[in-house]
Amino acid sequence: MEIASLPISLCSKEHQKIYQDWFNFADSDGDGRITGNDATKFFAMSKLSRSELKQVWAIADSKRQGFLSLEKFITAMQLVSLAQAGNELSADILSSVVDLENIEPPIMEGLGDLVATANSSANYSNPDVTGPAIPQPLSSARWFSSKSKKKVPLSAVTSIIDGLKRLYTEKLKPLEITYQFNDFLSPLLTSSDFDAKPMIMLLGQYSTGKTTFLKHLLKCNYPGAHIGPEPTTDRFVVVMSGPDERSIPGNTIAVQADMPFSGLTTFGGSFLSKFECSQMPHALLDHITFVDTPGVLSGEKQRTQRSYDFTGVTSWFAAKCDLILLLFDPHKLDISDEFKRVIASLRGHDDKIRVVLNKADQVDTQQLMRVYGALMWSLGKVLNTPEVMRVYIGSFNDKPINEAAIGPIGKDLFEKEQDDLLSDLKDIPKKACDRRINEFVKRARAAKIHAYIISHLKKEMPAMMGKAKAQQKLIDSLEDQFAKVQREFHLPAGDFPNVDHFKAVLNGYNIDKFEKMKPKLIQAVDDMLGYEIPELLKNFRNPYD
Questions:
Q1: Are 227 and 212 in contact, with CB atoms under 8 Å apart?
Q2: Can you spell out the DSSP letters for 199-216?
Q3: Burial class (CB in 10 A: 0-12, 13-18, 19+), 475
Q4: For position 451, what pLDDT does the model report?
Q5: What tens digit of pLDDT does each residue of 262-273 get?
Q6: Hey, which bits of 286-423 come out as E strands?
Q7: Cα 303–352–382 angle (5° rounding)?
């Protein structure tokens, strides 16, 4: 099984220069990005119909970021050229064209004169400039700086992700800091959390084929990979793109500002010594980052306590990941206590979970039917949901399928299942922006509920005497306090945090020191959810919708 890279524009150097000039002309604000307004004016010169231009934009902006970089602009120009030649546009048209380099630039009516005029005007006003200025994207790092207090208007952002950064810094982050949301539920976000590539986490008991599955996708081992029948992967390994093959220790990677792993420092040095990052140049890793995990313990091994909070780390990664693959094999269907705790920690991320029954060619067709039934029964007891979870069946390794055991029908089934899983993985980069919005809205709702809980507990504390006794009473009756908050503010019960976890954290705090209700902070988040996020999405949707 192979995951192809997303279409990367290829064109001759001569055509690249033409497209660079066109891009500089279309990019009216010089930020290195062409957004909807610029695009509609520029693409109108192609004389294509609105429906064709809508398709061009949808394919070029496959990740739905709301803008075109130079590379995506070249893709769009190649699509326009193909459409003008009478080709029907589709998502895979560029990968089916044999000679991408020789696709002639499209006919853009009147563009030559406009570009020539713009260039002559630029040369006249800047006689010392010998070439076109290289566009610099707007830096959003300043929004995360504590020194910068100046608000950035919504019109200044040039992508959905930049807009979310601004909204987080100005609207959501003040609420989180005021009510200590980062101590109870999730660390504060940084710029790198928004810019990170989509992540896929592999979970399962030892020897279910997690590292082999990753090797199968990459067609090679990542630096530091170990594969064997015994528990070999003894640490969390983030496999990501890099200029060369190397392994970076956990303590180093956790303090790098451009990496989204700073939140892992809360799990201490004992965890960071069991965490590393493997970097390698690879087409797939340019779009997706993988998280390989240690095998979940079973049987007697569960009694050997890990030196760090395994379930907590898994939950942290689950919140960051776009997809979570639970791997089983036909000979390890029992779900151990530790695996139960891990699956329970994925609560709230059910939409990300996929189950893979790996090494399925080790049993014959009749046994596979029974194994599948037993797996669904086991999962039903642990997940506590009436819905049936999607299970992919296959043998995800580099060996040929054991057709003698499963027969021709089984082989056909495996191929279809692999195609379905491949399709699911291919969609991840395309849905990354949608996922960021989804996670951001989820976080905003959780922070709002957290603020209601904290301010309610503060309100219940006495003004003078008996504070310690009152605090203990509130902690003991925390479930009832949650119910009061839910009724008072008409909040959904499913959005409330885990009571036991909240109690454990609350025990280390003095409730009397918490902040009272600040309606302005709550209102700012409500306005963000009700008006500003919809407005942001409207500004960066397909301009031809």
A1: yes
A2: EEEEEEBTTSSHHHHHHH
A3: middle
A4: 92
A5: 888 888 888 899
A6: 289-292, 323-328, 353-357, 391-393
A7: 40
